[in-house]
Amino acid sequence: MGQEDLRFVFIHPDEATGRQIKDFKTVADSGGESFMENFEYKLLYTVELMGFCYDDNKLVGIRALKTPSLEQVKSYMVKVGRPDLHFKYELGYAAVLPEARGRGIYQKLTEGMLEYLKEPAYIVTRKENHPVIHTMSKLGFETIGCEFPSIIDQSRLLVIMVN
To answer: Domain containing 120: what range?
Structure first.
């Protein structure tokens, strides 16, 4: 199965159906990376664009373009030693179901977000998340500053990449 079997959809959260939001959360939870408390609220008030990848009618990948608070962006940039940088957008909430990996879904979802965006953004990922770091590097992102511990799991070191 290749990319020709896949369908990509990009919508604003207020256009999403209840089913799409539920399915988005289910796939996001499967990634085990994000802090999902108050997810629906965060989705409606901090997400600018949602990306969905369907294989047939099954949702197999998701991506979101978030508009984090100024305080959150400042906090991240201070942690990496780059308080001079400011961003309006964060590429976040990304997950591809294990059985659908290796088909370029993460990259296509990210490219869709970048087409919409047309301005710099950042991404936060685990230092050892080599597939994400590799894909983001291919898309022109670079790691900046120093790594820092996750607030969710202090043993995980995070890095920030910017385009």
So the answer is: 3-162
